[in-house]
Design brief:
single chain, alpha+beta, Immunoglobulin-like, 2 domains, 5-stranded mixed sheet, 5 helices, 21% strand, elongated, binds dinuclear copper ion, copper ion binding, transmembrane, cytochrome-c oxidase, transport, copper
């Protein structure tokens, strides 16, 4: 009887904890309401199955408890029951996976008018690069990383000379404009995660991963690293600020370009 009670309490406590929990998700700040829909679908399917399975266990423990003279029936196979369980599970799993395929496709199908924004990770710092007036990011290579050139830009690529470099500072984005986020790591695996944007992706040394989103409200949001990357992992935080267009322009004008950064840092040739 104690086991039955514990099982029922487990279900009640789980449902109550969910309903009263203060750790609910953060208000969304991007266009990815689809991500929330897929989470909600998964939540209801797994939640209902969890409650049903535990209640069924409690019922069986009570109904088929030991009583003198009772004998168990031997029934190793039941085709009909197996068919129902297998098809029910298949439908449930498909309902959880299928929306993800559609949403993933949208997540990585970048609209043509999206502005490229590069995020560069290293132990344990977030840096950023925005295209300059030409709207293009120049080529880069981790092999070109030096103290003067922290993001490893190719100095011979003119497209990169006007790129705006933000080393370890805040990233600003204009509200309502789609951005193509390009992710690069110059040492180990990291993961760019801003909970309010419902967007998250691994950053892999040697390749550029990407996704896109449109910030839908202004505010200051925290960037978290979501991949264990060494002792500083938990302190690897960054900040992204979503601004109105005018505030964004004012901020952008204060940032330094790659050319300015090189001029400030490279030893001047003696003449
Ligand atoms: Cu970077 Cu964890």
């Amino acid at each position: 009887m104690a086991v039955v009670l514990i099982l029922v309490l487990l279900v009640l406590a789980s449902v109550l904890f969910h309903a009263l929990s203060p750790w609910w998700w953060t208000p969304i700040a991007s266009n990815w309401t689809y991500i929330d829909s897929t989470l909600i679908i998964t939540f209801w399917i797994t939640g209902i199955v969890f409650v049903a399975v535990i209640c069924f266990m409690a019922y069986c423990v009570y109904r088929f408890r030991h009583r003198p003279g009772n004998q168990a029936a031997y029934e190793p196979e039941n085709r009909k029951l197996e068919w129902w369980l297998a098809s029910g599970t298949a439908v449930g799993v498909a309902a959880m996976l299928a929306p993800g395929l559609v949403v993933w496709n949208q997540f990585i199908t970048v609209p043509d008018d999206a502005t490229p924004v590069e995020v560069v990770s290293q132990q344990w710092l977030w840096s950023f690069r925005l295209p300059g007036a030409d709207g293009k990011l120049g080529r880069s290579d981790t092999r070109d990383v030096t103290p003067e050139n922290p993001l490893g830009l190719n100095k011979n690529d003119t497209a990169g000379l006007d790129d705006v470099i933000i080393e370890g500072g805040e990233l600003h984005l204009p509200v309502g404009k789609p951005v193509r986020i390009l992710l690069r790591s110059i040492d180990v695996l990291h993961d760019f995660y801003v909970p309010e944007f419902r967007a998250k992706m691994d950053m892999i040394p040697g390749m550029v991963t990407y996704f896109w989103f449109t910030p839908t409200r202004t505010g200051t949001f925290e960037i978290l690293c979501a991949e264990l990357c060494g002792v500083g992992h938990s302190q690897m935080r960054g900040t992204v600020v979503v601004d109105e267009a005018a505030d964004y322009q004012a901020w952008l004008e204060q940032q330094q370009t790659f050319t300015q950064l090189l001029a400030a840092r490279e030893p001047q040739p003696a003449d």
